[in-house]
Amino acid sequence: MTDIVVERTGEIGDDKPSLNLTSLLVFGIPDFPEGKCFPFVNASSTRWEVRDSIPMPNDVEGIDCIVKGEEGEDEGYTHLSAVRVSRAIMDRESRLTEKIGLSAPGMQLTLSSKVVVMATEANENIAFKFRAVGNEFQTRFENSGNLQDIDYAIIANRSALAFIPLDSANRLNALISLATTLVKRIERTGALCDNDDAIMLTREALEMSPGNYDALNILGLSLYFRFVRVGELSDINEGISALQNVVSHHPQQDYRLVLLLNTLSAALGGRFQKTGELADLSEGIALLQRAITLIPSNHHLMHCLLNNLGGSLALRFDRSGELSDIAEAITAQRRAVGLIPQGHPALPAYLKLLGKSFGVRFRRIGDLKDITKAIALQQKAVELTPHGHIDLPARLDSLGTMFSLRFRRTEDLSEASEAISLRQRAVYLTSAGDIELPARLCNLGSAFQDRFAITREPSDMAEALLLKRRAVDLTDPDDLELPMRLSTLGNSVRIGCKSTGELSDADEAVSLHRRAVALIPQGHGEVPNLLLNLSNSLTHRFQRTGNLSDLDEAAAVTRRGIESAPPGHPHRHYLLLRVAETCIMRFERTQNISDVSESIAAAQRALEIVSPGHVDLAHTHRTLGWVLSRRSELTTDKGDLDASISHYRAAALSTLGSLEIRLDAAKSWAALVTHHYPQSPEILPSFDTALGLLALFAGLDRTVQGRYVQLQNTSGIALNAAAAACAFGREDKALEWLEQGRCLVWSQLNNLRTPLDDLQEHDGALAKKIADVSNRLPGAGSSRDSSSLDMPLSQKISLEAEARAHMELAREWDELLKTARAIPGFESFLKPLSCSSLTTNLPEEGPIVVINVDQSRCDAIALLSGMDEPLLIALPNFSVEKATKYRTDLKSQLQSRLLRARGPSDSAAPAGESMPRGIRSAKIGMHEDHPVRGVLQGLWEDVVKPILNALGISKATEASEEALPRIWWCPTGPLSFLPLHAAGVYRGTDPESALDYVVSSYTPTVTAITDRVKNRRSIDTQVSGLFLTNQPCAPDAPPIHGTTKEVQSIFRRVEESGVRALELEGGDMTVDQCLESMQNYSSIHLACHAAQNAAEPLQSRFLFHNGSLELATILKTNLKDADLAFLSACQTSTGDEKVSDEAVHLAAGMLAAGYRRVVATMWSIGDTPAQEVATDFYDFIIAQRKVDTGTAFDGTLSAHALHHATQRLRGRLGDSENSLLAWIPFVHFGY
C-alpha cells in the first residue's frame, strides 16, 4: 500500500474538536509482533500523510491500523482485509478507501491508499493455485450445470487476477480465464454486468496480445450475448468482425477452429434476425456445415453443431419456404437430441429448438402430428428448465406459440387458454428492461386476439390491443421488428373495429400498416405479409365507407405482395385469395366482368398451391365457391353453379380450418342446393352438416354469454333447414333439425341435469363421473370474472387459470360422453333426439305444436300422444314479413304506453297511479284504430285457427263440463315474441279466441316437455311447499307497494288450506336466504322487480331490498325438487330479437334451472292486475287440491289456474285495447 492518506471528512467548524494526529500504528506485518509505527508527514488539521509503503503479505488475512494522537493515545481504528484489498486490485480501483472508527464522537476520518501488486514469485504461485481451483469448478459446472460451481470458478479466477501485476506475462491467461468463466455464467443468467466485465477483460487481453484468437473469440461471443440482450447493432458488427479475424488467421483445422466457426455462425444468425439479411444466415449455415466436417461423428461437440445447424436451417425455411431446409433441420436436430447426454444442461434448449422446427413445418404443411410433437418436445424442455433459469421465459413463450398454432387448427379453446397462460408467465418472468419484453408482449397480445376470433369476448380484444400498443411503445425506432409489430397492431385494430364500428379505428389500422410497409427493408422476407395486412385493412375500410380508391389500392398492394413472394413463400396463397376477394368486391361496384374472371383465376391458383393439410384449405374452397357462384348468377352457367356447390361442400366437410368458415360454407352449400335443386337428396346432408357445425360453434367450453354472442350471427339455420325438409315432405327431419338447432344453450344446460338411472345400472362409476362434471359445468360456464386492463398481471394469470379449468372441464365432459356412447345401447346418449324418440314421451293432456317461420314458407308441426308421426300443417297465409309486422305493431303500442323495458332507475309513478313492475306507467289515451286487436286477429286467422282446425279442436261451449285440452306452443323466429295464447277476434258479434279452445303453455323446445314426461317423478314431501317473498322497495327502483298485499293475501290463503308455506318480506330476506328457501320449498312466488339483460342473459336478475338474485346464481344451485316458479314481475318472458330462437329470458332460465313450470309476463304488468291474477291463480290451485295431499303444494294444474285467472281478469276489464294489454302478458311455460 502506497500514497497513504488519513483525512478528516464530514462537517468541520469552530464548534468541532480539533485533532492532532502523529502516527499510524499497523499490526499484522511480519517481524513486527508489537506493530510497526509510521509517522505522519505534511500534517495539517484535516489531512495526514504516510511517506513509506505498508506491505500486506499473501499469508495474512489483513492488517489492523490504529491512528495515534500527540499524547500517544488511540484516536481511531480500522481493519483492512486481504479480500478487500484483492477486490480493489481486480476492479482496478484508483484508490482503496476505508472509514476509521473514532473514539471521540462527532468526527469522521478515512484512510485511503494506492494498492500495488509486487512482482514476486510468491504472488505468482498464489495466482496459479487460484486459477487451478477456477478450472476445477469450471469443469464441474460444465458437467453438472450447477450455477454455484461457475460462481466459485469466477471468484477463484478473480482472486488469481488480483495477485498478478499489470506488467506480468501471466496476466494474459488470467484475463482470458476469468472472461471465459464469465461467459459461461452469461449463458445461464444473461447478467449484463458479467457481459460488460467479459468485454472489458478481453479488450485488456487484446491490448497485451493483439490478434490473440482466444481473446477475440471470447470478445466476439461476449459482444454477441450483449447484442442479444441489448440489441445494439454495433456490438454484433464488432463481434462478427473479431470472430472473422480469428477464423481467417487460424492456422489449423482443429477443435478450436470448430468452436470459432460455431460462435461466428451464431453471431451471423443474430445479425440476420436484426437486419433480415438472408446472406448472413446462409453464411452461418455454411460455417456450421464446414465445422461438422472437421470432427468425427462421436465428438463431444457434434450434438451442439447439429443443433445449431438445425436452428439456422429452420430460420431459413421460414424465409424461403424451401421444404428441403426444414427436413434437413429436423434431421440434424433429432441427431443432436440423440447424441447429447441425458441430464446435460443444454438438453432443454435442444428440445425447444427441435419442437420449434416441427412447429414451423406444421405451419407450412399442416400435419397435425408435427404440432403435437412440437408441443410434447417443448413441454419437456420447460419441465427440465430450473426455476429462475434465464431461458425459462423464452421457453414458456415458445411453448405458448406452439399451443397457439394448434389452436388455430383445432379451435379448442383450452389450447388458446393454455397459450395465454404460458405467455403470461413468460411476460411475468421478463424484466422491465429486457430486450425480449416487447416481443413477448406482442406474442401475448396475439394469443388473446386468437381467442377473440372464436369467442368474440370484448375483453380479449381489449387486452390484445393494450399489449400490442405497449410492445410498439417499447420497441426502438431502429429495431427491425418494429414494422412487424406495427403491422400486427394494425391487424388487432382492424379486427377490433369490426366490433366497435368506429371509422377512426379503420383509419388507424390503415395508417399503422402504411408505416409498417414504409419501414420494412425491401427484400425482407416479411414484405409480402405486411403488404397483405395493408390490403386487408384497406379492404375493410372500403367495406365501411364504400370508397372505391381503397379497394383499388388494396388490389394493387396485393399484387405487389405476390411479386415479392417467391414460389413456396408461406403467404403466397393468402395473397392470391386476397386478389380473388378484392376483385369480386370491385365487380359488385363496377360490374366489370373481367374482375370476376381475375377473381376466379386467382382463387384457383391459390387452391393449386395450398397443401392438402393446410389449415386454410377450407377458406380457399369457400372463396372459390363464392366467386364461382357470383359468375353463375351472371352467366347462368350450370357448370359454374355445380362447381360452386362442390367447393362449398368441400369447405363444409373439411376437418381443417376455421369452424366459422366451415359453417358459412355449409350454409351456402345448403342454400344453393335448396334454391336450384329443390328435390336434390343433397339437401339433407348439407343441412345436417350445417347444424352439426352449429352445435360445435356454441360449445360448452365457452361461457354462456360467449355462446349467445356466437349464435347472433348464425340464427335462422335451423329454420331454413326445417322449411326445406317440409318442402321435401320430411316433417320428421324438420322436427329433428329444429330441436337440434334451436335453444342450444338451454338444451346444453338441460343435458347437464339429465337423470342417469339407466347408465347407473350399467356403469355406476362412469355415471358418477358424469354427474360430478355435470354439476360443476354450469357454474364454470355461467359466468367468469372479467379481466380489467389495469389489473396486475399476477391477477390476470389467476383469472386465466380459472378459464383454463373451465375448458378442461368441458373437454372432460366431451370425453365422458364418448365413453358412454361407446357402450352398446347408449350410442345416442345425450345426442339430439330422433323424431321417433320425441314421439315416445308426449304428454297425454294435449299436443305440442312447433311453428316454423322461414322466408320460404311457414308450417306447423304438431305432435300428439298416440301418433308415431308428426302432423304437418301448412300455413300458406302466414310469413316472416307478417310476423315481423305484427311484432313491430305490438312493440309500437307497448312503447307508446311506456310498457317497454326500462332500467330500475326510472322514477316512481305519479300519486294515485298503479306502478307497473319494472317500469313507470303512463296514462293510456284512446286510439281510433285497434292495432293490438289487429295483431291478435291476424295471428288467429293465419296461424292459430288453422292449427286448431287441423287438430280437430273445437270451441268449448258454456254448457260443457269437460276441461279444455292443453296445448304447448313452440314458436320460432319473430313469432316467439307474439301472444299466440291470446290470438283471436275481439270485436264484432261473434268474438272468439284461443282461450275458448285450449289452455295454452309455451315451451322453448319439444324436448323440454318430453323430458319432463319421461322423467316424471313425485316431489319430496319434505320439500313440497310454497315460498313467497315481496320486495316493494328495492334500491334504485320505483316502489311497488301492491306486492305486499299480493303476497300476504296469497300466504294467508295457502296457509289456511294447510299448505306448507313461508313468507319473507322486504328487508327481512337476504339473497342467500332466498336461495336457501328455493332449495327448501318446491315452489316459489317472487313479487318484485325483475331486470332482464339481453346482452348478458345470465345476469338477468330479481331485485330485492338487500341485493339482487342473478339467474347465473340460480343455475349454480341444485334444485332437484323444483316445481313451480310464479314470477310476479315484469317482462320475465321477453326474449332477445338478435337470438330469437334461443329463448333468452328469465322464464326459460328458470326452466333450465330445474323448475317444471313457470308463470311469467311478456311485458310490464300493473300492480292491481298482478294482484288479481295471482290471487285467482292460487285460489284455483287450492280449490283443486286433493284431500289427502297433506301440507304439499302441487303446481301440476298451474296452466289451468293461469287460464282461469286471466279469464277472470278479462271478464272484469273487457276486450278494449287497454284491457287486452293488461291481461295478455301473463303466460305459462313448461309442463
TrEMBL record:
The record places domain CHAT at: 935-1230
Q: Which top-level group of life is the source organism from?
A: Eukaryota
Q: Which residues form the signal peptide?
A: none
Name this protein carries in UniProt: CHAT domain-containing protein
